[in-house]
Design a protein that fits this description.
The complex is a heterodimer of chains A (49) and B (208).
Chain A (H helix, E strand, L loop, with lengths): L1 H16 L5 H26 L1
Helix pairs in contact in A: 1-2
Chain B lengths: L1 H58 L9 H24 L13 H7 L5 H33 L5 H20 L1 H31 L1
The chains are: A mainly alpha (49), B mainly alpha (208).
Chain lengths: 49, 208
């Protein structure tokens, strides 16, 4: 999950640091991957707690 | 009478349209400034989302604050997904908030503030900004790790807040309020990452 989160954040960094026509799609992919993995992480942490 | 009303309505509509056209011509620079500002806020929003997630992962290991960890992570996740979808919607209407030819990014803002031409700013980005970025990574990761590793656990979150507060003040003093805040937003996740690694090392040592 942490690897997924890292991939999502890297995509977001690429989308913000290198503007292009692909940037909105990269940002969407990064946002969904990072957001989805973060939600899964939150659920797992909640179960652990 | 109905013809008069229609004429009155058309005249009103025409005057509103011409006033709008005049205003947009007059306010074009202002609109551009607001659009650029919106882009900066959007990029900041993305970083705030990432910061929330990283903070959530860190506070998981702080005894007093561990219960708020999933809330922080969820908040960051919703912020990221929401902003990414919003960005796509805006770009579909021709106003990309992130990316696009005039998309102001934090790194470009840093480079273009000191470099006159686009080529020079690209070069500057490679020569100065990236090593600077790596340098501040160490400068913020290091303190986070040290405070996390050697701090007193029950009151640790107070130390982190104090150190992050000092970092914010220093950034604002060195780079000015707005740019200082942007740079602090870039530094804070690395600080928290350092603290997170320190907790993992500490916990690992305790378990062993």
């Amino acid at each position: 999950l942490l690897i997924g989160l890292a991939i999502g954040v890297i995509l977001l960094v690429i989308a913000t640091a290198f503007p292009s026509t692909m940037a909105p799609y990269l940002a969407l992919a990064g946002g969904i991957i990072a957001g989805g993995t973060a939600l899964a992480l939150a659920k797992r942490i909640e179960e652990e707690l | 009478v109905s013809g008069d009303k229609a004429l009155l309505g058309l005249t009103g509509l025409a005057s509103v349209a011409s006033a709008y056209a005049m205003l947009t011509m007059q306010l074009q620079p202002l609109v551009q400034t607001f659009q650029n500002l919106a882009k900066q806020i959007f990029v900041l929003g993305i970083w705030i989302g990432v910061l929330f997630i990283v903070s959530g992962l860190v506070v998981r290991y702080i005894p007093d604050l561990s219960a708020s960890s999933p809330k922080l992570i969820r908040g960051g996740a919703y912020l990221l997904v929401g902003l990414a979808v919003l960005n796509l919607l805006f770009s579909a209407f021709g106003i990309p908030l992130m990316g696009g030819p005039t998309g102001g990014t934090v790194m470009q803002l840093l480079a273009s503030s000191v470099a006159p031409s686009i080529y020079a700013s690209q070069l500057l980005l490679m020569i100065i900004v990236i090593p600077l970025f790596l340098g501040v990574f160490m400068l913020s990761f290091g303190p986070g790790f040290l405070v996390g590793y050697f701090g007193n656990v029950p009151t640790l979150h107070k130390y982190h807040l104090i150190v992050l507060g000092i970092m914010l003040l220093m950034c604002m003093a060195i780079f000015g309020t707005a740019l200082g805040f942007i740079i602090w937003m870039l530094l804070a996740p690395y600080y928290l990452l350092g603290a997170c690694v320190a907790y993992m090392v500490r916990r690992g040592a305790e378990l062993a």
